[in-house]
């Protein structure tokens, strides 16, 4: 990989929010900033990624929980969709199509879905969370193609699922945010499902890993520059940082962001992805598109999921629900 920015050009890192910084001292004991390839399997087996049970997901009867095996990409295995439907709905609901996070290397379709359920409690929606193959065993394009295949099936079976096909929003955090952006590009380019919006939370979108924020946050916070290198190398191998990386893998590589659904982009000021995410929202605007951008002061990667009680986390969560509500007309 060739860095275009001298590391000396980056100033000191921005401070963490005081509430978040205090919590980070504890979080760091279980989740160090850096992730290396030899840590992937232990993380997959570790308690930090323990799955939510069906009872957890049902939330005392608020949701029905089903799973469907649907066709994957041509010639590849089926894809499992986890479907969470609010009970008692009598008319078709909007859908939130969820692509989970995990740096492209860990997690499953239950990872992070409890956050989406919180949104659906306020903006009633059917949640469809896709299980995609993970790197490095399954490099690009397997993850994003799995996500796209699941979206196509969801849109084609909207009536069966109680979904309003005109109100499907794709959403994901971290690697899931990058996949959501990649799937939105695919849907545009392939004439696929018409998405109402794309919610990109601290999305992982630039394999070059050379922005000021990536340099500033090396060795700090959650998911630092070394971890980012590990994730992108797992997904792209030797192609990482080169000239021929597909925008479906790394949406920051896209040169045309016109014709995309409205985007919600948010990120912390004290995290690796800050500058690539701000640049992505700016590129959407330059292409004549619509994006709502939030940079949460002092936020580290995934701060709102790890420290949900912090004031800045509450603000971030409320902003997402407001955007969804406006977008869905609810």
TrEMBL record:
Alpha/beta hydrolase fold-3 domain location is 97-304
Q: Which GO terms describe its molecular function?
A: hydrolase activity
Which superkingdom does the taxonomy of this entry point to? Bacteria
InterPro entries linked to this entry: AB_hydrolase_3 (IPR013094), AB_hydrolase_fold (IPR029058), GDXG_lipolytic_enzyme (IPR050300)
Q: A Pfam family name for this chain?
A: Abhydrolase_3
**Keywords from the UniProt entry:** Hydrolase
Name this polypeptide is given:
Acetyl esterase/lipase
Q: Which taxonomic lineage does the organism of this UniProt entry have? A: Bacteria, Bacillati, Actinomycetota, Actinomycetes, Micromonosporales
